[in-house]
Each structure stands twice: as C-alpha cells, then as structure tokens.
Amino acid sequence: MNRSTQVVQRGWRRMAVAGAALMLAAASAAAQHLLVPMDEGQQNHLRAYGLTFAALKNGDRAEWWLNYRGGSFLLPDSPVLRRKAALDGVTIQPIDAAGVAAARKEIAASNMDAVPLEKAPRVAIYSPPKSPPWDDAVTLALKYAGIEYTQIWDDEVLSGDLAKYDWIHLFHEDFTGQFNKLYLGFRDQPWFIEQRDRDMATATRHNFPNVPALKKGVAARLRDFVEKGGFVFAMCGATETIELAMAAQGVDIASAFTDGTPMDPDADVKMDWSKSFAFQGVHLEMNPGLNAMSDIDGHQVNVPSRRQSLNTFTLFNFSAKFDPVATMLVQNHRNVIPDFYGVTTSFTKARLKPGVTVLANEEGTPWVKYIHGDYGKGSWTFLGGHDPEDPQHNIGAPPTDLAQRPNSPGYRLVLNNVLFPAAKKKPLKT
Question: Which of 58, 120, 307, 338 has its CA 20 to 30 A from that of 291?
Fold first, then answer.
C-alpha cells in the first residue's frame, strides 16, 4: 500500500468518525425526552429517584412507566438533567417522539402503565434531634439519592406542623413509650439516659403525665394526618408500636419502668382496633422482662426462644392498569429480595385487617414483609426490618454506605414510597 493510499484511507476514517459524531449529536438534538431505565442496565438505581425528584422539584412533568424495564422514568430532556445524571452516575437514554410512541404502544398492550408524576412531594422524617447508635434506612436513602426532606420530632407534630408535608417517614420510634424496651440492657448507657431525659422533658413541656402518654398523643396526630390525606411510611419497630399506641388510647400498655404502673392485665380486650391502620386482635406481650411488644411481629428477633431465621421475601406482581398504587410500591429490578431483621421484622398474617394489601411475603410462612392500605383520605405503608443491606443490624453497627450499594433492591422499596405521592390521581378501572 503506497503512502497516498494510506492518506486517503485515513481521511475516510476521519470522515466516518466525524459523521458518526454528527449523527449522535443530531439524534441527541432530536431527543425530546430522557428515558431513565430501571432494569439491570441502570448503573445507579437509587440516585435515579433523586434525578426524577429533581425534575419534579424544578417544575417539570415526568412519567413513571410501571413494569417497563424495571419501572423506568420518562423525563424531559434538558442540559441540567443530563449534567446531574452524569455527575450522579445515573444511566439515561435520549429518546425521540418516535421512540416514546413505540414504548407507549408496548405499554398499552402489556401489564404496564404510564403514570404522570406532577409535583415533588413535601417530605419529612420523624426522627430524634440526636440520633441513637443506629442509623435509619430512609434517612440514608434520601441523603444518598439527593431528595430534600425536613426533620421533625414531637414538638413539631404536637404544634400542628404536619400540614406542611405530604409524606412522612416514621423513624424507628417506640410509640408505646417504652424506649423499645432497651431499658432492659442499656439503661446505664449515656445515649439511653439522654433519650429518656429528652422524652420526659418533652412530655412535661406538652402537659403529658409521662412518656407513654406523650407518644400516644403523637401517634394520634399522625393518624389524623393520614386521615386528612397524608402519606405515612414506617419501618422496623415504628410499624408495630404506632398501631399499639393508636389502639390503646385510654389503656395502659406500658411497663412500670416507664410510667410507674404495670400494664393493664385486661389490655388485650380493651384495645380499640378501629383506630389503627393495619392490625386487629393483637395479643400484647405482658412480660416486662421480654424484649417484645406483641404478636404482630413474626420473627421476634429479641426473644431467643422465639427468634425466627431469615430467608428471602418475594414481591407480588400487580395489574399496573387496575392497581397502579400497589404496582408503584413494588417496582424493582429484582423480584426476590434477601430478608433483614428489625425490632419488628415481619407482620403476622392472622393479625392483618381485611382490606390490607400485601405487597411482599415469604412463601410458606405465617408472616408477610411489606403491606399497604388506605385510611380516610390518605394511606400508609409498612416495611418490616431495619436496613435492607444490613441483615443483622446490631446496635452500634456502622451506617450502610450506599455508595457501595447503588443498586440495592431493598432500598428501592423505600424510594418507591417517596415518589408515589407525586403520581397524578386517576379513577381506578374496577
């Protein structure tokens, strides 16, 4: 091959590369939307939620394509979102009008749906001013995803601030006022003493006789928030104890070390389950020496003789067009997820109220993992367990580094709950 021929070939190669670059640029310029895939092709599932939230926060409209490539998002194309996606490591794909039309055709013909997302929800986390020696999965998820939230506690709840928010997460608080019965093993620890003294001072400040009465008052305000149209998401011990607190108005269900009086021996029959969200007919743990609250929790992690081992749980497959809310809450790139302990790990099937939607369970067991329901004009969602990426989660364990878990299917369940209040409400087809 002579030199002139080589020069010509190099010229053609340069032209081909330049042409490809021009074609890519033209395709990008022609794109009207960004597809955020949420299947195995997504390199950072968790921050994809933050990207979608940022679009809504900016006043953009988005869509949640349920069951399409793992529950993908359709966002407007903009340099701002492209830059954020690049910085956050979120996989995006420019898509033009023809591509959107083809996807919509597939969605219409399958168990899929395109749900408009209209407005970023106002998010709050009910969490103590100074965290105890364990982390909170929702706080970790929101911080990593870049989703804005406000931290609130008892003073804000009792002062009427709940109306400022659309969605509230409940930290792993014991709403029975028994400090998760950690008194039994940690009463001399500085962090426990600080927590106890803080709660007692708050009770006095709001004219409650003791901490159990304070927490019952807070639980009642949270129930009112849901009844008026709010969304509540709870994990771990908050799921079980808020139910007990709501049903126990006027009933002493706290051990003597918290209020100076023993539990009412007839508490089981005096509970008013019409005031709770999810459970009924619950048997309370009457032994103050056992670190358990009731038979709601199927795993009883802190009672060695009752403790159940971990396995996996399976997300249910719902009809996207007929049951969009449940479908939103289970969007994932994995259907089977490793289980994880919490003060409350699971929910006994026999204690569920009729009408509760089971979102995930462990096949062949008497318990479920993930539930949802409506109350008044609002709704609630409970996920058992403490941290989806820390199965044992011992007190004092270091916080989970989500930068090492950007594709966590368990944490996706948390973030599904943050976004679904943004969905445009539409009449069900049933």
Answer: 338
